[in-house]
Amino acid sequence: MEEKTDALPPIADFSAWYNEILRRAEIMDVRYPVKGLYVWYPFGFAIRKNTYNRLREILDVDHQETLFPLLIPDYEFMKEAEHIKGFEEEVYWVTHGGLSELDVKLALRPTSETAIYPMYALWVRSHADLPLKLYQIVNTFRYETKHTRPLIRLREITSFKEAHTVHCTWEEAAAQVEEAVRLYSVFYHDLGVPILISRRPDWDKFPGADYTIAVDCIMPDGKTLQIGTAHHLGTHFSKTYNITYEDTAGEQQLAYQTCYGISERCIASVISVHGDDTGLVLPPLVAPVQVVIIPIIIGKRRDEVMAAAETLAADLKALGIRVELDTRDMRPGAKYYHWELHGVPLRLEIGPRDIDAGTIVAVDRFKEKCQIRSVNEVIPLLDEIQATISRHAEDAASGKITICSGIEEIKVAVESGVAVASWCGDRGCSDLIEAETDASLLGSDLRGPHAEKLGGVGCVVCGKVGKAALIGRSY
Hints:
This protein is α+β, with helices and mostly antiparallel strands.
């Protein structure tokens, strides 16, 4: 593909930067002729593969992966009224097979509760079958009418990880919600993405859930992006789909359920939170190319340099490192630009002088340079880069969070970040906060050190006892 050498828009102009980086770094092609549907470039898909491989590793400890059909018959889809009301304007319907009208309309899954739970009713028989913990990674379709944006707001979500669990008691399901939050915290820690965890207000919870816990990150423009949710479903769906089990006394009991999901927004967060004015900054964990080798060809020693570079590449591959040897007929500077744009964590340069000195020049994505003498030094360097990327992201996120004690402070905070303020839980106070600040009350019971800084401050509207709430603008 054609190499671009003109500068990216600065990340301070986030919208322009984001659109350009998806194209130039070959993440997604937006030119597919259906709104809200995009095509993964191979490089972007490799980021996806590495990211979801890590998610699978985390889940596979005590979950099993499965796969349910894309098409859902309307009589199953329409059973749970509250759930359907939340999705009724977003559903794509298949009404014909060829030229023949179908006897039963088929929904393209916007999410899979109504596809999975009729089968759970057949599978769950006894308390010995529980807990049941399954997940799938699939595409889902939603007729999104807002402004679509690749990886963030789509009509085809190409990479939706949804877990669905079944338990004997409400308390066991609640414990599973907490376990889901823990797993997501591990996942985003590994990606170096700082997260904020809060409980969505009742009017913004998942349709049919008892409650919803959400995971948000802060984007470079200060807006939040929801990058994970966990829902306690109580017995709402088990009543509808007759998911029951026989307890130890031989009695039939309704099961309690949870579901929790992550989409390719997790990749949008990696791209956005870590990127800079030069391009992508990819954590080594997910980078398609962890190390690129640039041979420096000078004079008559080309064959010697190439042989040394090939040996270096083979040694790195033997260590399990994803390495690329760049032998293109281009100036070294153009190669540097290409791989920095694509976020490669570490560049190794080898030329005649390096061969004579028995050293290799190592340059990280932040253009810090050092010399190494052995490939065994590369893995520690990658670990250090991973830690540096995470630290930079944490510092940036902390700088966008403001502890507020009044409406005026919130107004200022949400111009460039998010506010943490006390809220009593009343819908009227939430409405006033949103009307006065032109931002959303995203969640309450905020977890972490920022919530602890509030102390015993009362609600910013009424002064009553409150809990830490997250307030901001979101995608």
